[in-house]
Amino acid sequence: MLEWLHKARTKDSTDARGVAIDPVCGMGVQPGHAVATRKVDEQVFYFCSERCVEEFDRDAGSTLSITLTR
Predict the structure, then answer these.
(1) Cβ(40)–Cβ(60) below 8 Å
(2) What's the confidence (pLDDT) of residue 69?
(3) Cβ atoms of residues 9 and 66 within 8 Å
């Protein structure tokens, strides 16, 4: 169920250019232009769209304590 979160948390979430990877869809996101962010266990996740944020909140929010960081 949370396989995508595990993958996102076990690899570097940014590439050499500083582009973060949306943990839901895998798209590259410029951190300063992210639609939203979420913080889980001190790691910040960046999202490309509201749909991805909603899916993350629905799946991860039910089992993890997340801090909203818009």
Answers:
(1) yes
(2) 52
(3) no
